[in-house]
Amino acid sequence: MAARGGVGVEADVAALRAQFAAGRTRGAEWRAAQLRGLLRMAAEAEAEVCRALHADLAKPYTESYVHEIALVKSSCRFALKNLKKWMKPQKVSASLMTFPSTAMVTAEPLGVVLVISAWNYPFSIAAGNAVVLKPSEVAPATSSLLAELLPQYVDSTCIKVVEGGVAETTALLEQKWDKIFYTGNGKIGRIVMASAAKHLTPVVLELGGKCPVVVDSNVDLHVTAKRIAAGKWGCNNGQACISPDFIITTKSFAPKLLEALGKVLEKFYGDEPLRSSDLSRIVNSNHFNRLKKLMDDENVSDKIVFGGQRDEHQLKIAPTIFMDVPLDSGIMKEEIFGPLLPIITVDKIHESFALINSMTKPLAAYLFTKDSKLQEQYEAGISAGGMLVNDTVVHLTNQYLPFGGVGESGIGAYHGSFSFEAFSHKKAVLVRGFAGEAAARYPPYSTAKLKILRGVLKGNLGSMIQAILGFPRGK
Amino acid sequence: MAPAMVGTVEEKPKPLPLAIGIGGMVSGLREVYESGRTKELEWRQSQLKGLIRLLTDKEEEIFAVLHEDLGKNRGETFRDELGILVKSIKYTLQNLKKWMAPEKAESPLVAFPATAMVVPEPLGVVLIFSCWNLPLGLALEPLSGAIAAGNAVVLKPSELAPSTAAFLAANIPKYLDSRAVKVVLGGPIVGEELMEHRWDKVLFTGSERIGRIIMTKAAKTLSPVALELGSKCPCIVDWLDSKRDRQIAVNRIIGAKWSTCAGQACIAIDHIICEERFAPILIELLKSTLKRFMSKPGGMARILNEKHFERLSGYLDDNNVAASVVHGGDIDPKTLKIEPTILLNPPVDSDVMTEEIFGPILPIITVKKTEDCITYLKSKPKPLAIYAFTNNERLKRRIVEETSSGSVTFNDAVVQYALESIPFGGVGHSGFGQYHGKYSFELFSNKKAVFKRSFLIEFMFRYPPWDDSKIGTLRYVFSYNYILLFFNLLGLRR
């Protein structure tokens, strides 16, 4: 069912355009039917999806359920619940200037959209678009499962899966789309945006960054350690855009934090973590080698204070913690995207701000503290896509919060109603009647007319009345 | 920190000093932004008030430069640029505090206790390119939005309206904080050099061709862009029974074509579509009303420059197009004036019907029935605005539901630009990104999600090692099935 190659892609897009032009995707019934189909798919194919994710990533069943299945299901339910409300035009106040008139803003679908590697595709459908999904080729079993399953549950004349690697993605990017959603890294993000520029296609880019975790000493230590560990190693073993990347804490608190993390890790994964079925593996040998290189850097390898075990054959790396690696080492310059966790220590916790601000803006910034003043300062002083206090990652599950990056971590936001908006065009509609004609608007211009126009634009009621009554007369 | 760069308008390539000058300016602005200066409410308010003072103190000079650049008369300048700007900036000042306030968001019960908020913050250092046809409005409207959102700003006005550009370069530093708001003069070379840098947002108003170049360059630095581009804005005129309605429609059509920078505006009416039987009535009424409106000289702005004059008169050179002239057609290369010209059914593949006209030539295309226009509209690229003069509710509904455009206005044209409550911007080939009113503030902001949890209430089922019972509990959590979750947590299961 999945198309491959350039010619196939062009024909696919043309077919989708025809369906969209025919109005097939616009009605609420069609959109709701697709969302219900996706819900059914998530429920019925749960076991298969989890098996595929296990094949691709050795992802524990629960993680798959929580991150993939449950997220898709709750997105679909949220969209279904709110669909009618989102589709309804919003009346807005018109101005006395254009009296009498009514104004509204109505959301309309953009057309045919391309979604690369993102799990938020249910919203593109909720917004009434025709969609091409290009799942990540880095997880091949999951990609082919999606290609096989999706047509069985949704209208495959309007929703298609295209599989493949660089060649197929390039072919897709050459087509004209009404919007492109891309999740991935900054290098490809730039290529996506440059291709989109040829057709003036707007883009949403969800990219990466180094998500910092600032840990104050005024915290519940055990809960903090658990939440950091769950966010780091409980999410694809650190291979997620919002995984905590590194920790900043005070010199005095670091040993306590390290001890707490160690205890928690042992509880989660046992004393032989490479053998735990609850730990995902590294997705492929490219990334395994990249991470190995970061760990083996001569300025970094002697800073390992926990873990460090790895198994090349299984592509597994155990949770590994480093203490005070040099700030210019590879592990501190690029997004880690793996189970390595550097702890950087500072004298006073406020010094963490300058360090974070010296890096590019992250997708998420985390802070653990009970001190509300520190929370306020963090919120005002750090720019990020999202900020989470006293927990990690879970803000992703709140459908009411926009999720997206800023700066190098991305462009555009989505989730819940923000997704619906991201996939829609907000069309302004102004309705006037033939009453209320103002001669002052038209040439030939005169001082008298200018006077009235001034008044009208200032909101002067007297001027407006004059204008509406057709002053100055006889012109 | 480099002072505002004032380059010459006639460009000679000077790459190295230019690059250094602009590079210095950009890094200087970043420092100013990082100092937190532009984030303060008081700073933003003082800048907006400064803009209003600039517009009121310098009113006479503004009338003069706009007349120099475009031959605009005072009425048009006030109506389309000055007056609207003051109104809009006042609106922004009134609402600024409200817009800056964090918005509370719901959070699910399972996250209790937690607070969720969306906090708007400035993007940082932004760049605005404005176009020559509304040289004041298209520069200062986005500038006011960028400032309201707390950013440091670089404004690059179009070199094709040099008097206005020079006016802005001279006066912005006097009325605004010149350390955080800069005006850079110059042409394409300066524009290209500016785009070598990373911006937290770029707003470009202009042609599709340059829009593509800007976005391609922005991709290299991942600078988010908003593009306000042109299009052929169609105006459908339905059969109107009442004489009064007809006159009003014609007044408004003339206002939206010839009285708006002589048709050189992205939201000007490009062409008309009407029923065959209505065309003669419409043409007669247009002719007589034009005579009245344009009775005094200076009623219409002039064509920008020779290049555009030649482009426009070139449309009329095509024999088939010349044959379709039913009014006007006179041109004067010395004064760059083209009189209001109406065409009836020029060939659909002629340049005047395929390119954005951006001038005082108005083609009228006839159809058998007004509703036939829907098919026509759907076959064309999405315009910035669709206009329709009609009392037919069904037609209105069909236009809104079956066509796509930046906006739709019924029974008037161009006035949508003046309403702060509706978004202004294109879709498809007419661009993306919207502004005006609150939309300007949002265009230049980052909406940061902030989620705060407490250490109280810890759910063990969140953590490995995993087992089936934990998964069972999580199912309830994710479906927000609080009752079953409650029983589950108590150890009572179905």
Automatic annotation (TrEMBL), chain A:
Q: What is this protein called?
A: Aldehyde dehydrogenase
The lineage, from the top, is:
Eukaryota, Viridiplantae, Streptophyta, Embryophyta, Tracheophyta
Superkingdom of this protein's organism: Eukaryota
Q: Which family does it belong to?
A: Belongs to the aldehyde dehydrogenase family.
Q: Which UniProt keywords apply?
A: NAD, Oxidoreductase
What catalytic reaction does the record list?
A: an aldehyde + NAD(+) + H2O = a carboxylate + NADH + 2 H(+)
GO:BP terms for this protein? aldehyde metabolic process; response to abscisic acid
GO cellular component entries: cytoplasm
Q: Which residues form the Aldehyde dehydrogenase domain?
A: 9-429
Q: Which Pfam families match?
A: Aldedh
* InterPro entries xref list: Ald_DH/histidinol_DH, Ald_DH_C, Ald_DH_N, Aldehyde_DH_dom, Aldehyde_DH_NAD(P)
Query: Which Gene Ontology MF annotations are present?
Result: aldehyde dehydrogenase (NAD+) activity
So where does this one cross the membrane? none
Q: Where is the active site?
A: E206, C241
TrEMBL record, chain B:
Q: Which residues form the active site?
A: E228, C266
Catalytic reactions on record: an aldehyde + NAD(+) + H2O = a carboxylate + NADH + 2 H(+)
Q: Which positions fall inside the Aldehyde dehydrogenase domain?
A: 37-450
**A GO BP entry:** aldehyde metabolic process
Return the InterPro entries for the record. Answer: Ald_DH/histidinol_DH, Ald_DH_C, Ald_DH_N, Aldehyde_DH_dom, Aldehyde_DH_NAD(P)
Q: Which Gene3D superfamilies match?
A: Aldehyde Dehydrogenase, Chain A, domain 1, Aldehyde Dehydrogenase, Chain A, domain 2
This protein's UniProt keywords = NAD, Oxidoreductase
Please give the GO cellular component terms listed in this UniProt entry: cytoplasm
Molecular function GO labels: aldehyde dehydrogenase (NAD+) activity
User: Its family?
Assistant: Belongs to the aldehyde dehydrogenase family.
Q: What is this protein called?
A: Aldehyde dehydrogenase
Taxonomic source organism: Leersia perrieri
